[in-house]
C-alpha cells in the first residue's frame, strides 16, 4: 500500500514526496501425499505450492483461521447489471492445520445457494458476523474440498485507520456499475469465502463473467478471454489481501518489461489518458528494481486504475487509484515504483502477521527513497536528516513500528521508521553487501511467510555480523535510536 503524503520537505531544493527462516525456501511436500491408508483418495499434489503455516493474527484476531490452510481458490464469478448482483461458485482445496469440529472462514453474508464438502451436500451451513461456518469435522493434514455457491449484493467493511486515503474495504460498486477492491488488512471476504489473514498464501484460478462492454481484471497471470468471461491464474502463492477484482468499461494497453515480462495496463478513456504515460514507464521501474533485488518474481505484471484515492500492491496487477484531485506525474510515478517494489517485498515474501507490516512497508519505502535520490540527487546526509526528523514525529504520534495498533493500520510509523532502520543497515554494510543481502532475502525466501525473528536470523547469517540490537532498537524504541 502506498504511504499517504506526510509533509513535503525540501532536500537540495527538491521536494521529496512519499508515496524466517534463515534457510532457503523450498517446495513443500504435497499435501495429503502419504502412504497412510487414511489419506484422501483425491490427489492434492497440484496445489502443494499453496501450502502455508497459518498463524493467528494478534492485531486482527477476528479475521482468519489458523486451523485451516487454504491451498487453492477456484473462483467462478458473474457480475450482473442492473441488479448489481454478484453470483459466485468458490471451490477451495483446504489442508486442515488442526483437527476441528467445523470449517470456518471469513465471508460476508451473501445468500448461500449450495455448500458441499468433498462433493457431499452440507446442511446447516450459515453466514453471520462476517463468518462462514460449515458444520463438517476435519482432521489435521487430511485435505478436503469445500464448494460454496452464493449470490448477493456486495457490501464493504470499515478500514481500521486514520490515513487520509482510508476508505471502506472490500468489493466496492462504482457509479458506472463496475467493481473494485481495496482489501488490506482484510476485505477479500466481501466477495469470496477466504482465510483472510496474511500467513495463509494460496494458489488461485479466477473466472469472471461481466456485462457486454465491460472487462474484468484480477491478480495473477491473464489466462484468456472467451466472450465476456475473463480468466486469471496464479501459480505462485498469494495472500488474500493481495488478490484484486476490478470490473468496468476498460481499455487495455500492453508492454514488455525486462527479459520480455508481459505487462498490461487497464484504464478508462478520458481522464485516465493523462496517467497512461506514467503506466508505460513500468519497464523503467522494473529495471531499477531488478538491478538491485534480482529478477521480478512473477510471470507477468501490470496496473489497473480504479475509483479510489489509494494504491495497493496487488500481486502481478497493481491497483492504483484514479481519484486524484490534482494529478502530479512525478508523485504518481513514485507511488507506482513503491507498489512495484512490493512485488519483491510483501508479495513474493509476505509477513506472517500484521505485527510485522514494517517488513513490507519499510523495504518499499526505503526503495522509494533510493529511487527519488537517484532522480533528484539529494545526498545521503540529507536523506538521513529527513528520515530522523520524521521518524521522531511518527514515533511520538503513533508509536514504534514494531508495535502497531489495531486502530492505526498502515500509518506513517510503519513506513518511515523501518526505512530509517534499513538506511542504518545500509550504512553499516555498504551498498555491495546491503543489496546482496536484500537480493538473497527475496530470491531465497520467495513464496514464504516471514517475521521479525526470521528476518534478524537471516540478516545475521547472511552478513556474518550480529545486527539484532540495531534492528530491535529501531522497531521497539519510543524515540529515534542514536
TrEMBL record:
Keywords: Aminopeptidase, Hydrolase, Metal-binding, Metalloprotease, Protease, Zinc. It comes from Paractinoplanes rhizophilus. It is an enzyme of class 3 (hydrolase). GO terms for molecular function: aminopeptidase activity. Residues 279-474 form the Peptidase M1 membrane alanine aminopeptidase domain. Its cofactor is Zn(2+). It catalyses: Release of an N-terminal amino acid, Xaa-|-Yaa- from a peptide, amide or arylamide. Xaa is preferably Ala, but may be most amino acids including Pro (slow action). When a terminal hydrophobic residue is followed by a prolyl residue, the two may be released as an intact Xaa-Pro dipeptide. Pfam families: Peptidase_M1, Peptidase_M1_N. The keyword Transmembrane does not apply. Its EC number is 3.4.11.2. The keyword Oxidoreductase does not apply. Belongs to the peptidase M1 family. This is Aminopeptidase N. Residues 71-242 form the Aminopeptidase N-like N-terminal domain. InterPro entries: Aminopeptidase_N-like_N, Aminopeptidase_N-like_N_sf, Peptidase_M1, Peptidase_M1_aminopeptidases, Peptidase_M1_dom, Peptidase_M4/M1_CTD_sf.
